[in-house]
Amino acid sequence: MTAPGTGRARLPKLPPAYRPLFAHRPFRRLLFAFAASDFGDGMAVVTVPWLAVLLAPDGNRGLYVGTAVAAYALPGAVGALVLGRWMRAFPARRLLFADAALRAVMLACVPLAWVLGVLTPWLYVVLLASSSLLHAWGSAGKYTLLADLLAPERRLAANALVSSSASAAMVFGPALAGVLITVLSPAWIIGIDALTFAVLALGAVRVRPDAAADERPGGTGRPGRAGGADAAGPAGGPGGKPFAVLGLFRQRPELLGILVLTWSFFFLYGPVEVALPLHVTEDLRQGPHLLGLYWTLFSAGAVLGSLAAGTLRRLPLWPTALGIVAGWGTVLLPFGFGAPPVVTVTCFALGGLIYGPFTALSFTLFQDRTPAAWLTTVLAVRGAALLASSPTGAALGGPLTAALGPRTVLAASGAATLALVAAALVVRPKARHGGREPGEEPGEDLGAAEAA
Question: What is the pLDDT of residue 430?
Answer without folding.
Answer: 55
